[in-house]
């Protein structure tokens, strides 16, 4: 759902960059945690990113426990705890997913630059077009003698008719 959803639809290079970032971070952190298989961590990373970007989607666990998608990684983490499996891989995936989500979605909206911009080489490999910022053309100079502008009329504000209702003595006390 992450790849085909609105986040990465027709943005294969951006999705590949998500995977490259996740694999790189997991491979850098894994030796300190004595982890040898990274598939679960990478899956948890993608689940975390999808859950944060689709936080209002209603879900249920085993058809009995309703929650929103933002809590999906925690629900799955709790399920791992119930099954007495190691949560190290799951927590690693959540950490890397949160790092990606923060750097890609939160930090740029706080006024920072977009740190995880997809490299051009990936756009070329997958044939996708990078997102471009709109360029606004400057208006022509106004002192050009060949251009005669007609004065523009400003739109007149429309005023809705107001019904005047006489107030009685009680209404005047309330206003005062």
Notes on the structure:
This protein is mostly helical and 176 residues long. The protein has a domain at 12-126. Helix content is 46%, strand content 5%. It contains six helices and two strands. A two-stranded antiparallel ribbon has the order 1-2. A hairpin with a 3-residue loop joins strand 1 and strand 2. Helix 1 (12-33) crosses helix 4 (88-106), helix 1 crosses helix 5 and helix 2 (39-53) crosses helix 4 (88-106).
Features:
globular, 2 strands, disordered C terminus, two-stranded antiparallel ribbon, mainly alpha, 6 helices, 176 residues
Brief summary of the model shown:
With 176 residues, the protein is mainly α.
Which range best describes the helical content: under 10%, 10-25%, 25-40%, 40-55%, 55-70% or over 70%?
40-55%
Rg, nearest Å:
28 Å
Number of helices: 6
Query: Spans with pLDDT under 50 lasting ≥5 residues?
Result: 133-137, 143-147, 171-176
Mean pLDDT: 76
Instruction: Tell the overall outline.
Output: globular
Largest sheet: 2 strands, antiparallel
